[in-house]
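Blinded run. Sample ID left blank on purpose so nobody reads anything into the name before looking at the predicted structure. Input follows.
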Amino acid sequence: MSLTIEVSHILPERIHLRLLNPDAYTIDRVIRVDVNGTRTLRTLDGQLPSAAAVLDIDDFEYALTGTITYTAYRNTGAAAATATVSMSPPMFPHVVLIAAPLYPPDGRTLADGSLDPNAITFAISWDATREARSTVHQVIGRPDPVAVLRPAALQAGSITLIGPDYLTVEQLAAQLGQARVWMLRQADVPGLDLYFVVTGLRLNNAEPLHWQLEVSFAEVAWPNGSYVAVTVWTYAELAAGYGDYNVVASSFVDYLDLLEKRPIA
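Blinded prediction complete.
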């Protein structure tokens, strides 16, 4: 029996991977390919390389649309196992999240798919531009200009969000005010996801009963680094993954293991 990748706990916030490695291969990295591109899967600090018989990895950055392929590579460079997940048709339609790649607990679900504007905060508009960096110089004595070519900048613009009340939107503004690289993840527009930093926050009441938050952003490159451990999770995640109390009781040794997401192998 060789290395296999089991995919489980597919939630909007994360996909859980379990690598079963009975031959004790040294696994150097896991690569994810989806509509957003090809990336090395982010792991906990020191988690890879590893020759452990069972290795649990969470992916908090996968695309919510299209096909996702995970490939585990040995330290020799050889591909050891592959697993594929199809998100089409959309498994989580109309879901919008702002993830914190290096600090997953700081992520926030903006729209859970219910489309209830009185209960959720959700993206209502998108406005982005890419600044051209090439310059054109007019030279005396020649009719054509001299162009100095430079690649265009990444996107910058604003995402406008609306919430049911002031407190909800103010809490979101406070959260986005942290010193973090964020990631927009959404299910409706393939390829729109991006990593960004917040450059401004503007709050106003667009309607008498609704408050609006304009998030000015600048797109940045994929942030390097491991992610911090996630030791807190919600009842919604628990219910989605385990169904009822009997399944929970048979899946965890004790309450501490439940709190820290350590199911019985």
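Unblinding after everyone has recorded impressions. The radius of gyration is 22 Å.
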